[in-house]
Amino acid sequence: MKKILAIDDQEDNLLSIKALTKFYLPNCSLFLAQSGEEGIEIAREEQPDTILLDIIMPEMDGYEVCRILKQDERTKNIPILMLSALGQDTEIRVKGLDLGADAFLAKPFIPTELTSQINVMLRIKEVEDMLRMEKEVLEETVKERTKELYVINIKQKADIIKLTKTEEELKIALEKATESDRLKIAFLQNISHEIRTPMNGIYGFSELLRSNHLSGDEQQSYIDIIMKSGDRMLNTLNDIMDISRLETGNVALNISTTNVNDELENLLILFRPEVEKKGLQFNYTTDLQTADAVIETDSDKLHSVMFNLISNSIKYSHNGNIEFGYVKKEDCLEFYVSDTGIGIPAERQNAIFDRFVKSDIEDKEVYEGSGLGLSISKAYIEMLKGSMWVDSVEGQGSKFYFTLPYYPTSRLIIESDAESPVIQFEEHIEGLKILIVEDDLTATEYLDIIVQDISTTILHASNGSEAINLCQNNSDIDLILMDLKMPIIDGYEATKQIREFNKQVIIVAQTAFALVGDREKALNAGCDEYISKPLNKTALIEIINRLFG
Ligand code: ADP
Asked: Going by DSSP bridges, is the β-strand pair 80-84/28-33 parallel, antiparallel, or unpaired?
């Protein structure tokens, strides 16, 4: 049902409109207002389909009512038919139309004319409402489509970005894989070189030692070369073991009170002969009194880092001087090792701390080294809560720095170590029956020589199975030196089987693997102690002294 609102201050006029609409427009409901304010209120509430508005009214005239209704969002679309007793005055019409009125009708109105005017208004409203609705639907559809297109667009963009990213990632991964392959091959070539070169020295000079015509000095110098080659090979192997331990997170810290002044002095003594031989100057500086130069750190790792840096300085310097030492900073000691050597090109100064990098340098001269030392040193220093970096100018020299935390609370005076005595077997250890289980002939001969002073009988087995048999037939064996990696039955299994019938015999495991966990595995199998190869005579004597002392 259509709604009509009539606003007029004259009750008579309202009554005649009421009578008229009842007669001519029975399907419409009529709302009446006697003032402008009342009319506006009803219009806002009822949303009529057309408004009949008188112009001349007290307080608020029809123009003002029309202006307010047309400015209000809620009522602006309702058609207004202005009713005026002032007839056809053009000025009045223009003013009304300017304010938004839709039509005019002069009073007194002819009923049919008013009815048809109202019908026109209602039709306009209906059509306009429909158009507005369609417009809204259209706008909504456009909005939805725009949104969809936006989402599709964004998705497409994201897909493109993803594709580009994947492509880039693949490219980087491929480059990395190629680079890592290249480094791996270079690393293996370098390691092979680092093992073969000293091996060559050992073979070659051992061969020469066989000659009968050598003087004592010559023999001694060949032996020195063999020992040096052995050391070099061992360094390479130790580096590889250290890296593998760092990779698997199997490096433990052994923190103790360390006097850094003593440590530096020992390094000076240790390296002086080598440095002097190369004709280089060598000195060190300390920044604290010896009594204050005390830190809590892993002294083995500190030693190994300094050792590596000083060795590198010597290796890469042909003249000038090498200096090392430390400076006390606010809460740390800043160590340094500087040289006037070949220096490092700026673009390589980060890479030298990466693993396997040495082999990547196209040295004109060939410097020995696995290329692992600096990455191990940096990893150690970081484990000890410090940092490591380098300043270097190609052709002028390098200065390596690292820091270690310094807590001044522990003021300790550490006596410098007296020269360590040569360890001997304790006197009462003698007459032992020893079984050497070893598949390598050289290692067997070496062990024979070490233990000959304390044994009456030395038995030999070259695999686990032979060892078990010998133990079954010789229940009086005192000591077994058990290699772990052997053919047929390995050392772990042999130990386990021997323990089934002999709990007393002392078994010392020896292995060339030296991996973390080996020791526990050997002890779990039933060994009493563990020693890693290459066998250190002093360490083995210490173990035997302890086990038989
Ligand atoms: P390496 O066993 O080859 O010496 P490092 O990891 O100790 O391995 O060193 C990596 C590389 O850094 C070396 O191969 C060398 O190119 C460079 N380097 C290290 N120390 C120095 C130095 N004092 N002077 C010049 N170059 C150095």
From this structure: unpaired
Q: How far from 325 is each of 178, 255, 256, 335, CA to CA, in Å?
A: 41, 21, 20, 6
Sorted by sequence, the CB contacts under 8 Å of residue 35 that are 6+ apart come out as 7, 9, 57, 58, 59, 60
For the full predicted model, state whether its pTM sits above 0.85.
Answer: no
Whether residue 388 is predicted with pLDDT greater than 60 in this model: the reply is yes
Mutation to probe ligand 1, out of 236, 307, 311, 312 (largest number of atoms < 8 A from CB): 312
Token readout for 270 is 């240790």
Quote the ligand 1 centre to 383 CA distance (angstroms).
Answer: 21
Confidence of residue 408 (pLDDT cuts 50, 70, 90): low
Best residue for ligand 1 mutational test, from 190, 240, 339, 344 (most atoms within 8 Å of Cβ)? 344
**Rounded distance, CA 107 to CA 105, Å?**
7
The separation between the first and the last C-alpha atoms of the chain, rounded to the nearest angstrom, is 119
The dihedrals phi and psi of 326, each to the nearest 5 degrees, come to -155, 155
CA nearest 56: which of 92, 88, 15?
92
Residue owning the nearest CA to atom 21 of ligand 1:
312
Q: Is residue 309 within 6 Å of ligand 1 at its C-beta?
A: no
Q: Where are the beta strands (DSSP E) in 9-115?
A: 28-33, 50-54, 80-84, 103-106
Residues 6+ positions from 502 with CB-CB distance below 8 Å: 471, 475, 477
Q: Facing residues of 30 across strands? A: 4
Residue 358 Cα to ligand 1 middle (Å): 7
Q: Give the whole-angstrom CA distance, residue 167 versus residue 173.
A: 10
316 lines ligand 1 (CB under 6 A): yes
CA–chain centroid gap for 90, Å, is: 85
In this structure, the number of other CB atoms found within 10 A of the CB of residue 13 comes to 20
Residues in the chain, how many?
Answer: 549
Q: Which residue has the tokens 């009509």?
A: 4
pLDDT tens for 133-190 read: 999 999 999 999 898 888 888 888 888 888 888 888 888 888 888 877 776 776 777 6
CA distances from 60 to 9, 102, 105, 459 (A): 10, 19, 20, 130
Cα-to-centroid distance, 134 and ligand 1 (Å)? 80
